[in-house]
Specification:
Strand content: 15-25%
Distance between the termini: 26 Å
Helix content: 40-55%
Bound molecules: adenosine-5'-diphosphate, magnesium ion
Radius of gyration: 22 Å
Number of strands: 15
Strand order of the largest sheet: 10-11-9-12-13-8-14-15
Number of helices: 15
Structural class: alpha/beta
């Protein structure tokens, strides 16, 4: 089956319960990574899938996991291992939505920073699927509250990120505790050395799925850069927010201190704002995330790590208050926007010294950044004189007819 031919979920031969859930979630057609991965996973194949952020990987594994559940065992059948608690919560949520019409399905999220007792209750109910961060999963395994001895499928989500964060030993220990014939499925934005190592060690004849960053699966994001530094960045950012009438934006800073200070400054100016960074306790991070998702405040200021993998629909614009330290972070950051139909804009503040750094990012990410400025009538325009919103509209509609 070639993915080009797949234009609707029905062609993937899904159960009526999943089809109903998918349509309730508002999805019209499978994304390319879903079209390719779902049949392979249901055949039981090991998979190594490389796909950029925002291409729908969660459902790409979530759908086949749910379709494959058996009722002849009480053991954990599938484990999804991912690098952060935020991602863990988000994946569990998406799986629960997919399972909305499968009432008996139990999904447990197991991650650090949450009292173990609460997770014990969920684990005692014999979940079919466990979504976990590596450390906490191992913790439960050593307490005997999680047993993977009858696991059918292990999914490693954001494998590059997870293995890079030094979890490679933990991930090995987890995989070592699964049966030798467990299906191992890996999703990654990049195929790093560590990803290859784990694939080599734990997969058999893995099918390769590759979704290019270019093409239709890439969100259409209008990307802009403007000269602005020091405290003027705050001013310029708010000018843009007000000018374009934005009500859901994410602002990225490289350091916790930047994020904290910026958050405080915005709050003092009466803006509806909250922050996410590593020093914020987990319970509060969860509250901040769901408040942002529900639109209860407008500006979320975050560090890269705290915002990793977070999925909020309708982020209208992303601001790079600082230029990210790593090229890849640039893509992760701007991938927060352009997911839904709304604007999809990314603004990067720079100083003259940053030009080379940005050129490098442009080359690496194959993105086009427009130079913009405020003209003397206060309009936000490109150096060639085009209106920023007009550029965004053109980019969004490009290639769509
Ligand atoms: P990734 O893990 O590849 O970064 P996600 O799984 O987080 O991507 O999905 C990104 C967004 O796309 C989510 O909001 C998700 O609900 C949505 N999405 C997933 N599949 C589809 C689809 N087939 N059609 C439309 N939107 C989808
Ligand atoms: Mg993902």
């Amino acid at each position: 089956m070639k993915d080009e031919e797949i234009t609707c979920f029905e062609q993937l031969e899904l159960s009526s319960e999943i089809l109903k859930a998918v349509s309730r979630m508002g999805f019209m057609a499978p994304t390319p990574v879903q079209a390719q991965t779902i049949p392979l996973m249901r055949q039981g194949s090991d998979i190594i899938a490389k796909a950029p952020t925002g291409t729908g990987k969660t459902c790409a594994f979530g759908i086949p996991l749910l379709e494959g559940l058996r009722d002849d065992t009480d053991d954990i059948q599938a484990a999804v291992v991912c690098p952060t608690r935020e991602l863990c919560i988000q994946i569990a949520e998406e799986l629960r939505q997919l399972a909305a019409f499968l009432p008996g399905v139990r999904i447990a999220a197991v991650y650090g920073g949450q009292p173990i007792a609460r997770q014990l209750t969920a684990l005692k109910k014999r979940p079919h699927i466990v979504v976990a961060t590596p450390g906490r999963l191992l913790d439960h395994m050593s307490r005997g509250t999680v047993w993977l001895g009858n696991l059918y499928t292990a999914v490693l989500d954001e494998a590059d990120e997870m293995l890079k964060m030094g979890f490679i030993r933990d991930v090995r220990r987890i995989l070592n505790a699964t049966p030798a014939d467990t299906q191992v499925v890996m999703f990654s934005a990049t195929i790093s050395r560590e990803v290859m190592d784990v694939a080599w060690e734990y997969q058999h004849n893995a099918a390769e799925v590759q979704i290019a960053a270019e093409g239709d699966s890439r969100p259409r994001i209008a990307q802009f850069q403007l000269m602005s530094s020091g405290s003027r960045r705050t001013e310029d950012m708010l000018r843009i927010v007000d000018l374009l009438d934005l009500h859901r934006v994410m602002v990225f800073g490289n350091r916790k201190s930047t994020v904290r200070q910026l958050g405080e400054r915005l709050r003092r100016q009466g803006r509806s704002v909250d922050c996410l960074h590593g020093d914020i306790p987990q319970s509060q991070r969860n509250r901040v995330m769901s408040a942002f998702r529900e639109g209860r405040f407008e500006i979320l200021v975050a560090t890269d790590v705290a915002a990793r993998g977070i999925d909020v629909d309708d982020v209208e614009a992303v601001f790079n208050y600082d230029i990210p330290d790593e090229n890849e972070y640039y893509l992760h950051r701007i991938g927060r926007t352009g997911r839904a139909k709304r604007h999809g804009m990314a603004f990067t503040f720079m100083t003259p010294d940053d030009r080379f750094r940005l050129r490098d990012i442009r080359k690496y990410t194959h993105s086009e950044l427009w130079d913009i400025h405020f003209d003397d009538r206060g309009r936000l325009i490109s150096d060639e004189g085009a209106d920023v919103e007009e550029i965004a509209r053109r980019i969004q509609t490009a290639g769509k007819d």
